[in-house]
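FORM 7B: Structural annotation worksheet

SECTION A. Query
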Amino acid sequence: MTLRSKTMVLDFTGECDGAAAAEIRLVAELPDAGGAEDGGTVVLEQDAATVTQPGGEIRLVAREPLRYDGEPADVEFVLPESPESTVLTVRALVVRLESAGD
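SECTION B. Predicted structure
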């Protein structure tokens, strides 16, 4: 994942609260290296992301909706008021929906 030109490896975990992909919510903790903008969380949803760090929170929109077909996908998120600038990129994200019994 790349956030504001800083590349990091994160493990996302989450759930799907319904049959529709619109209910997908994945969460990852950002590493805390002691800097002013370090630490926090990233929450991915079907067509949006929320990045919460010390000092604030930003809400981003996906260039394309999150895929959940089990294939790797690169997902880019932008500020709604500045769609030409990518703020967050998640590379090779694989989302698999499993039934509750799996």
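SECTION C. Observations
The mean pLDDT is 82. DSSP finds no helices and nine strands in the chain.

SECTION D. Sign-off
Analyst initials: ____
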